[in-house]
Write a structure and sequence with these properties.
Length: 313
Amino acid sequence: MKTRITELFGIKYPIIQGGMIWCSGWKLAAAVSEAGGLGLIGAGSMNPDIFQEHLTKIKSATNKPFGVNLPLLYQHSDEIVGIILREKVKIVFTSAGNPGKLTPVFKEQGIKVVHVIASTKFALKAQEAGVDAIVAEGFEAGGHNGAEETTTMVLLPLIRKKVDLPLIAAGGIGTGRQMLAAFALGAEGVQVGSRFAASVESSAHQVFKQKIVEAAEGDTQIVLKQVVPVRLLKNQFFNQIDNLERNGASPRELKDFLGYGRARLGMFEGNANDGELEIGQVSALIDEIKPAGVIMKEMMSEFDEVSAEICRG
């Protein structure tokens, strides 16, 4: 299958694994790349030494294309950038910040740059910055989210009207049918997060993976809108922060209660009561933990089957 996304990255299938914090280590990224997609190491939850270790291991595990996801506002971003340049990483996905500063730096070194956005306004800014492609992430997505609350089904055609760059859809995509729907709306590739969070190779704690499998419709919701909007599975921590917001807590009070390391506590250490469990709405469709290669195969098989059904009428 050829699209501008497969040609840009030199991959077989237009499926990119989301660079999720605490879930996207070298094992998952290598497994997705080996299966024909593009695996991403999620640098946002790694200190520089750990990031270097994951880069070294993925280079030994696969000779297929892979990339790095870098939140631009991450406290270690300067050191991570230095490692990316030194290790000659070929693909970088940036998020959570202005791509104008680092995109020229990466491009000068021949690195392909993709930026994650949640609105037309920031899609245009990414285009002006000179990125090679855009990830349009809708409101259904897990983790940190756009303040505009635009869903993937609306966001994709809005951006397709304004921007001619290769477009990757994200948010609420975990099946071949959903992938096909994204293509119908103008996408040329999809970024899949939650489905791979519940894979065998995901570095997430087994307790978190099981919570994803058990999730039902309505079990995720956006909170912390006064600080940084984030979609979480409902648990004890969610209820506490939700009650604080409903009772008029200030951003400072919310930050104080949030503290430090909540996502690590929930997603990586498996504390399902007191930690953040960042996951998307598509978790309601996930009912089994599977190897990443199987997930890739099932998505592409369903994509092809449904495409053929539609063509037959």
